[in-house]
Amino acid sequence: MTTSSLARLRTAAPATFAVYVCQTLLALAPAWPLARAVERSLATHPLGSDALDAPGGLWRLETLAALSDTAAPLADVTLIAVLLTLAVAPLLQMTWLAALLRRMPLREALALGARRYAAAVGVSVALLPVLLVALGTLALVPAMLSRLVTQTPSDRTHDLVVLGGLVPGLVLLAFWGLWHDLARASLARSGRSLSAVLRGAQACLPPRTLPTYLGWLAVGAFFATAAQLLASGFSGRGSLAAFATLLLTQTLGLARTVVRARWLATALDRVR
Amino acid sequence: MFVALAAALVTPRATKAQQASDRDAAIVAPPAPCPTRYAIDAALDPVAHTVDGTVRLHWVNESSAPATDLWFHLYLNAFASNDTVFMRESRGQLRGVRSPGHGGLDLHALRTAAGVDLLARADRALVRGDAPQLRVPLAAPVAPGDALDLVITFRARLPPVFARSGFARDFHMIAQWFPKLARREADGRWASFPYHGMGEFYADFATYDLTLRTPRGWVVGATGAKTRETMRGAQVERHFHADRVHDAAWVAWPHFRELTILHEGVAVRVLHPPGHEAVLPRHLHAVREGLTRFGRAFGPYPYPTLTVVLPPRGAEGAAGMEYPTLIVSGGPWFDVPGVRTPFPEEVTAHELAHEWFYGLVATNEVQWPMLDEGLTQWATTRLLADVFGETRSAIALPGLTLDAFEIARLFALRGRPTPAPGQPAYAFDDSTYGRSVYLRTALVLETTRRTFGAARFDRAIGHYARAQRFRHPVPADLFASFDAVFGADFSARTLAPALLRGETADAHLVRLESAPDGRGRFRTDVEAARTGSLELPLSLALRADDGRTRRLAWPPGMPRFRATFTAPERYTAAILDPDRHNLLDADALDGTLSNRPAPPGAFFARVLAALQALVATVGA
C-alpha cells in the first residue's frame, strides 16, 4: 500500500460516499417495490416479513407464489434500474477517478466526469471485443472439453475437466476488467486520446497489476458475501433487529465501496 | 394400585397389539415359489445393443375362468416408431429427456412344449400403428389350475435410453426386454394395455430364473439373487433367481464400481460409476433408513438382495426407476457437507419405497397410478421428514430450510387445475401427472395422518400394505383398511372425495375484531369460512397483545365458523390451522389475520444489500 494511494483515498472520501449513495439509490429502485410487495403479501401475518425466516420456508413459499402475480411490474422496474445503472456507471466512475486524482470540490469532479463521459463510454466500446472473447471463452471452452472427455466413464473426472475449462475464460474476464479500469484511470489522469489511454493501460497489464486487482476484487467480494451471510443469519425480530441488520449490511456495503476506491487509487498510481 | 391400573389398561392393548403382530407375521411370511415360472436365457451384444434370448414359460391359470388366449406385453415395441401410443402420448420424451432413436422386440418363435406354433395365429395389431401387445389364441382352453408350457425366442433391440430402457454408449439398462404375460385377473380378464406415456406396468407374480451372458469384464446387476457365475470362453454367464416378483430387469456396464453392505439380512449391492464414492454414504443412508422404517411400517422387505444402480451421465433416462429387487437412482457425484438437497436421498428413498408400493403391493399402475406413485411419494416424503426433520425434509442450506410437504402443496394445488389423483394414468399429461398423482395423493394422505392421528393412520396404511402384499389391490382395498381403523364411512367422507374427486379443504379467516366491552374486558369476534368442499376438523390460534394464546376448534360440518367471547386480554392476531395439519389448502396466507401493523423486517435490508452489490458490479 503506497502513501500516495492512501492520500488519494482520504482526498476522495466525499466522492466515495457519493458513489455509495448513488449505488444505493440505484439499488433502491427495484429493492423498495420488491420489499413492499413482500410486506404487502405478509401484511396479515403477525410476524410480517420476519415470517420469511420461519423454519421449513412455509411463508417464503407462500410469498413466492403470491409474488408471481406481481412479477411483471417488478421486472419492468428492475430492467429500468439496470439500464439506468449502465448509463450512469461511466459518469460515476469518471467523477470518482477525478476526485481520487487530486483534491477538488465534488461539483468540479462531477463536471470533469461529465466532460469525460463520452470518452469513458468509448473505452467500454473499444474493449467490448475483449469482453466478448472472454465471455465466449467462458462458454465455449468448457463445452468443447465436455465433448472431448465424453468417453470417460467417471462423471467426476468429466466435471473437473469441464470446471478446469472455466479458468481461461475467467482469466480473460479478469484481464478485461483490469484493462477497463486502467484505461479509465489513464483517461482521468491524462485526458489523452482513446488509443493513447488504451495503450497506456496496456503497458500496466499483467503480470504486474493483475494480482493487485484480483486481491482488491476478492476483498470487495468478501464484504458483499459477508453482508448477505450476516443478514441471513441474523436471528432477531422486530424493528430494532431490522434496523441493526440494515446498519450492518450498509456498513459492509460502504466498506466494499471504500475497497473499490482503494483499488482505483492504486490504478491511478499505476497508469501514466 | 397404579401398577395394577396400568397393567389393566395396558394388558388388553398389548394383547391386541400382539395379536395384530401375529396376524401381520402370517401376512408377511417369506415369499413362496409361484406356480408360474419364467426361465430366460439371454445374451447381450453390447455393440449392436441387442439381447437375444429364449423364454421357457410355465404358466398356470390361477384365475377362475378357462383361458382361450394369452396376452403378452412386448413393451420395447413402444419405441419402434414415432407413431406408437407411448411416443404419441409422451411426445417422444420422458422427464425432459428426448427420444434419440428407436428400438423394438422381435419374436422369432412362440411354440408350445409339444412344438405347436402359436405365433402364426397371433394378433399383433391390437392398436393401430402400435405393437406392444400380442394376443395369442390357444388351440385348446386352459382350465383353471391347469398349466401350459411355452418356448419363445426373441431379440430385444434396445433404443438409446430416454425412457427407462435402453443404452447410452456401453451402458445398458435392459428392462421391458422379453415377452411377458399381462396380468390375468381373478375373474379371467386379461388386464392388458399398451405402453402409455404416463403410468407404468402391471403383471402377475412369478418365479424368475435368469441366465445372462455378457462379455468378460462386464459388471451385471439384475432382479433376484445371483446363484452362480461361469466363464464360457470370452463370455461370462450369470444366473439370477427371484421368487414372487412380477418383472425382471438387468443392467450391464463394464465400468461399474461396486459396493455391498448387509442391512437387516438384505445384501444391498450398489453399482455406481467411478468417482461417485463421495456420495455413496448418502445413498446408503437412505437405503438403510428405508429398509428399516418402510419395513417397520409396511412389513419387512422379503427378498435377500437389493441392487441400487447409479447410471452414468448420458444415461439419465434410465434413472429414477424401480424394478423388483433392483432400483435405479441418480444424482450428482459430489457431496457438500452440511448441505441437504433433494438428490440423492429423495430419489433413492422413492425408488426403494416402490419395492413396497409396486413391488409387493402390485397395483395396476395404469388404472390406479395413485396407489403406486402416490403412496410411494407419501412414504418417501414421510421418511425424509422423519429422518431429517419436517422443516428440513426438502432442503437444508445455511439460512434456508424447506419442508417437502409444503413444496408439494404449492406445486399440487396452485396453478393449472389437475384431474383428481384417482384417475387412470392416461387421463393426465406430463404437466399434471406428477402434480396430481404423486403430490396430491401424498398431501391427502399426510393431511389425513396429521388431522386424524399419526398412530391410527400408520396402523391403517400398515394394515393395507401387509394385507395386500403379493396381491393386486384396488382403491376399495385401501379404503377398507382405513375404515377398519377409523370407522365405517371414513373413506367415503374423507379419502374418496379427496382422491377420487379431487376435493380440497380450502378455508380462510374472514375477520378478527377485539374491542373493549365497557367493563374493562375485551369482546373478541373471529370468523372463518370454508371454500373447499372437503370438511376437515380445523383449529384456530388467537394471540393477544400480551402474548397469551387461545385455541378454538372448528369441527367439520360447519361451512362457516364464528366465535365470540369476552376476555381480559385483547386478541389482535389469528392463524388458521397453526399446526399445519391441513395440506389441502392452496393458500395459507389467507389463514392469517393481524390487527397490528407488522414490525418492519430484515428482508428489505437483505435485498438492498444484494442489489447494491449487483449495482457495484455492473456499475462503477
Structural notes for this entry:
- The complex is a heterodimer of chains A (272) and B (620).
- Chain A is 81% helix and 0% strand.
- By secondary structure, chain A is mainly alpha-helical.
- In chain A, 37% of the residues are buried.
- By secondary structure, chain B is of the alpha+beta class.
- Chain B is 27% helix and 31% strand.
- Chain B has 11 helices and 32 strands.
- In chain B, strands 6-8-2-1-14-17-16 form a 7-stranded mixed β-sheet, with no helix packed on it. A 5-stranded mixed β-sheet of chain B has the order 19-20-21-23-22, with helices on one face. Chain B has a 4-stranded antiparallel β-sheet with strand order 9-10-18-15, with no helix packed on it.
- In chain B, strand 26 and strand 27 form a beta hairpin.
- Mean pLDDT of chain B is 91; it is low at 1-23.
Give the key terms.
heterodimer, A: 272 residues, mainly alpha, 12 helices, 0% strand, B: 620 residues, Immunoglobulin-like, 32 strands
